[in-house]
């Protein structure tokens, strides 16, 4: 492994595979879509997609078309790539030619996708999104019938394949999610009554996929939980553990403090000063200060330069998870991971 001289995000492949297996078992018979947005929450989108498909996952949620295109040659041809952010026409064309499934959340986007598919003489695979109350785009209820009919006309002409219906949940309360699910199921039923064939249905993300089996469609979109990132203020997740550990070396001992080579320039929030703990060879110690390029940690007996300090991880040295660290700052574990700077080396082990 060599001597650690700068911060490193260590990403545990065995743990990732175990998380995927636990999730697939829990959501069965629904299929798991691994979401890899934000470079797989800092874990590496390409590595995550390659590892997941090798483990049997056959849907990857890429978020945007450019990410999906970079993954097309990284996964088996039969793997379905889903991109749901509204894209420019040139990206639509590339997605159609690459066989990327597109999430469609507005009449205008549907028209543009149909037009690009027709221009290319190719078939676009589409999933229509109904707005179930979150207002994160999606066809409004009054637009839904016309949108489905337009998609079905394009399907009969050979321009599209209507693959599925999908939406997002607010996950603010069970009652609100139940209302959203009712609106979703009504939209699916209407699509089928208008002549849509077999449809993939997907509504839930990490938390609802885990805790609300009655809301799962035949496909669930799970990002954070696959990487062992629990919800802020949420419970621990049996069978899941953090995949990534943030590690940095001690550069010197300064009295009662160890000076460690990681700081705000590496993406560590300076507001953690005096509010967090870290794992060390001598057990849990207080994080006393966060500087630009270093932190100061309460020293332990025998502390010396070259020792490794763990800022967050699965807890093997007493360190907290990224989400526990984030809760100190009233944010989420995903933010702690995705704000890490490129200087922090990513190493898959």
Q: Could you explain the architecture of this structure?
A:
The protein has helices spanning 13-27, 37-41, 45-54, 65-71, 89-98, 107-120, 141-157, 174-193, 206-211, 322-327, 333-338; strands at residues 8-11, 31-35, 59-63, 80-83, 101-104, 124-129, 160-166, 200-202, 219-222, 244-254, 257-260, 276-280, 283-290, 295-298, 308-312, 345-348. The protein is of the alpha/beta class. It is built from eleven helices and 16 strands. Helix 7 links the parallel strand 6 and strand 7 (160-166). Helix content is 33%, strand content 24%. The strands form two sheets. Strands 1, 10, 11, 12, 13, 14, 15 and 16 form an eight-stranded mixed sheet that branches. It has an eight-stranded parallel sheet with strand order 8-7-6-5-4-3-2-9. It has two domains: 13-227, Alanine racemase (TIM Barrel, Alpha-Beta Barrel); 244-348, Lyase, Ornithine Decarboxylase, Chain A, domain 1 (Beta Barrel).
Shape: elongated
Overall mean pLDDT stands at: 96
Note the run of SSEs as H and E. EHEHHEHEHEHEHEHEHEEEEEEEHHE
Domain tally: 2
Q: How would a crystallographer describe the biggest sheet?
A: 8 strands, mixed
Number of helices: 11
Q: What is the terminal separation in angstroms?
A: 10 Å
Q: By helix and strand content, what is the structural category? A: alpha/beta
Q: What is the helix content?
A: 25-40%
- Using only CA atoms, what is the Rg? 23 Å
- CATH overall fold name of the largest domain: TIM Barrel
Find the CATH superfamily of the largest domain. Alanine racemase
Which runs of at least 5 residues are low in confidence (pLDDT < 50)? none
């Amino acid at each position: 492994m060599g001597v650690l001289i700068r911060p490193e995000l260590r990403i545990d492949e065995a743990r990732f595979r175990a998380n995927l297996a636990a999730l697939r078992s829990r959501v069965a018979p629904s299929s798991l879509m691994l979401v890899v947005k934000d470079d797989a929450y800092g874990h590496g989108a390409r590595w995550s997609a390659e590892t997941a498909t090798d483990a049997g996952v056959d849907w990857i949620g890429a978020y945007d078309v450019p990410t999906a295109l970079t993954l097309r040659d990284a996964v088996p041809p039969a793997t379905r790539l889903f991109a749901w952010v509204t894209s420019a026409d040139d990206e639509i064309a590339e997605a159609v030619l690459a066989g990327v499934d597109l999430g469609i959340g507005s009449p205008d986007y549907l028209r543009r996708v149909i037009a690009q598919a027709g221009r290319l003489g190719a078939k676009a695979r589409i999933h229509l999104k109904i707005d179930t109350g979150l207002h994160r785009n999606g066809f409004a209820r009054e637009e839904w019938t016309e949108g489905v009919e337009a998609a079905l006309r394009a399907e009969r002409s050979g321009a599209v394949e209507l693959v599925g219906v999908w939406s997002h949940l607010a996950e603010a309360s069970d009652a609100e999610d139940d209302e959203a699910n009712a609106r979703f199921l009504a939209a699916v039923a209407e699509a089928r009554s208008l002549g849509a064939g077999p449809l993939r249905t997907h509504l839930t993300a990490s938390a609802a996929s885990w805790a609300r089996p009655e809301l799962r469609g035949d496909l669930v979109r799970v990002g954070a939980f696959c990487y062992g990132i629990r919800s802020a203020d949420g419970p621990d997740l049996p069978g899941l553990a953090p995949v990534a550990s943030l590690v940095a070396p001690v550069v010197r001992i300064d009295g009662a403090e160890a000076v460690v080579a990681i700081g705000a320039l590496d993406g560590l929030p300076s507001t953690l000063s005096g509010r967090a703990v870290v794992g060390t060879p001598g057990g849990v110690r207080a994080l006393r200060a966060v500087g630009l390029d270093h932190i100061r940690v309460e020293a332990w007996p025998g502390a010396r330069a070259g020792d490794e300090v763990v800022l967050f991880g699965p807890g093997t040295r007493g360190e907290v998870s990224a989400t526990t660290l984030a809760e100190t700052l009233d944010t989420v574990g995903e933010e702690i991971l995705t704000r890490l700077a490129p200087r922090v080396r990513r190493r898959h082990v």
